[in-house]
Amino acid sequence: MKESLSTADVVNLLHKVCIDMEAVTDELTEIDAKCGDGDLGISVKLGFAAVRKGLPEFAELDTGALLAKSGAVFNAAGASTFGTLMATAFMRAGRAVKGKNEIGLSDIADMMTSAVDGIRERGKAAPGERTMLDSLIPAQEALTACCRDKRCLSDALDAAADAAKKGAESTAHMEAKHGRAGWIGKRLEQVPDAGATAIAILLRSMAAHMR
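Predicted structure:
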């Protein structure tokens, strides 16, 4: 079982994740139509399709630069609030491993922490406000704990994916503070946040392909 990923491994993993994310357009659109503008699925599909198509060109870069370029491409193709925040996550994660061609669990935990910090700053949101942070922060905490406990990389990604899924599900009982969801009110009861759900799907895809 791999305990570190070369840049080539990251390219291959990201390619598979992009395909999985492009395939959930309808699911995310249906959720977002109930609690947002209904365009999240399209933003996700366009953004991840653009990243997938750009990967061959980025393959010669170090991992940090690869992620930064992927973020810029995502933002240009999937322009939206989610696209901006996803691009921020990619770019901040890339900054955490700038110049590296091999990353391990501690690097991935650092990447997630940097991504969370970037989204907090850019989105002006906090945990419990029904946003993608409610998936990302539990995943980040799980990765940090697994790193501290010296868990294997695959188990750590599984733990992060499980935590993200529980976090996304918990948003169904939260009051939204941002965007269109902030004034829909009780219609959101029992409906999870679409952005948090997208993050949970993304992390589950990563974990599955690592297996």
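Summary: The longest helix spans residues 40-58.
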